[in-house]
Amino acid sequence: MKKLLIAIMASLALASSVALAGCGGGAPASIDGTWEITEMTQDGQDMLELVKSLGGLAGVSGADDGAVVEFKDGKATMSMMGETSDMGAYSYENGKLTMGNDTVQVDGDTISIEANGAKMVLKKK
How does pLDDT run across 66-104, given as a tens digit for each residue? Predict the structure, then answer.
C-alpha cells in the first residue's frame, strides 16, 4: 500500500510540473534547498490527508518525515513516507523556474503547481 501511494504521489508531482505558478513577494535569489509540500490535491481530494490518515506522516507541516521537494544541482526530488522520487530536471534563473517546457516567475517563498486537476503548494523551509 505504501509503495502504491508513493507511486500515486510521484505521478501527481510529475503531472503537476507541467504547469507552474508562483506567488508571494519578490523573486528569491535561489530555489535550491528544501520546500515543504503544504498542499497536494487531485480533483479536490486532499492527498496529504489521505496519506496522513493511513499513518504515512507523523504530521504534515513541520514533520521531520513530512512531504518535501528538494531542489539541488538542477534536479528536483520529492520525499514522502521514507521514499524519494525523481521529479526531473529544473533550471532557475532571474526569478524564473523552468521544469520541462514550462516556465514560471517565482515570487517569495511559495510555489503553486497546477495541472490536470492536480495542485501542489510548496513553501520554502
Answer: 788 899 999 999 887 778 889 889 999 888 888 887 776
Rounded Cα distance, 14 and 102, in Å: 12
Give ∠ CA 109-82-4 in degrees, rounded to 5. Answer: 100
To the question of pTM greater than 0.90 for the whole model, the response is: no
Higher pLDDT, 3 or 75: 75
* Degrees to nearest 5, angle at CA 117 with 91 and 16: 15
- Contacts for 21 with CB less than 8 Å, ≥ 6 apart: 104, 111, 112, 113, 114
Cβ–Cβ < 8 Å for 123, 40: no
